[in-house]
């Protein structure tokens, strides 16, 4: 009843009073709505500020981690450089044929009777590769040969040197064991731009020597002798002695004037496939085997 009377009393008000009441009610509702909106905005702002502070901490942690990583990478590059410098005198992977060629080059004028590569002995951080060498020459040649071996760019040590005279000849036989050392710790080589490599080449330097296969193609097979056998990551390698020098030969290399191609390399023999002319039969393929100690056979 009181509520009805109140509304009745309000209805009896004059229009200015009614308008004032309406405006006051609108202002009150607007204030309540604005207050609720501001409280929601303040809460969202607080959450955004907290998230921003969290992201700032995360960013700072990642920045510190990146700085530490950059320092670690710099130290790693420095250690790799020092490791490469330490490994420089060691035998690189697959570098045994090159070492044997260096040995042959230092012994020019000598007669190589034996070059025998023994099984590598693994150590903690390197591998020891024993190579037995037996050569014949006069005293001055042998002395120069030993000095040259000690001066090889790849680190090697000499052991068990034995010198004996040859019956009825003014020459001596030298037998020794050369231990080469190969690195057992792989390390990535520094990347170098192709342009820098081109710029580092000396245009007036001597040209690269002809490969072993091209040299041996011009020699009769009877003058080639199998004196050793080894293996590297690329496969089996036969050591051929010709004119006092050693040459590494692989399957697919050409030997001799009859278009001979190496088809098999084993520890005790090397097999060639030669193309020869047979009267009345034309061109035929002939198998030829070169064994250790100059043993040869035809099939």
Rg over alpha carbons? 44 Å
Give the amount of beta strand, in percent.
Answer: 25-35%
In CATH, what is the class of the largest domain? Answer: Mainly Beta
Beta strand count:
13
Helix content: 25-40%
CATH architecture classification name of the largest domain: Roll
Could you list the spans in which at least 5 consecutive residues all have pLDDT below 50? 185-210
- Provide the residue-averaged pLDDT: 73
* Total number of distinct structural domains: 3
Stated plainly, the CATH topology of the largest domain is called SH3 type barrels
Termini Cα gap: 134 Å
Structure description:
The chain contains six helices and 13 strands. With 299 residues, the protein is α+β, with helices and mostly antiparallel strands. It folds into three domains: 13-84; 96-183, Alpha-Beta Plaits (2-Layer Sandwich); 209-298, Roll (SH3 type barrels), CATH 2.30.30.830. The strands form three sheets. Strands 1, 2, 3, 4 and 5 form a five-stranded antiparallel sheet that branches. It has a five-stranded antiparallel sheet with strand order 9-10-11-12-13. The protein has a three-stranded antiparallel sheet with strand order 6-7-8. It is elongated and about 150 Å long. The model is unreliable at 185-210 (pLDDT under 50).
Give a brief rundown of this model.
The protein is α+β, with helices and mostly antiparallel strands and 299 residues long.
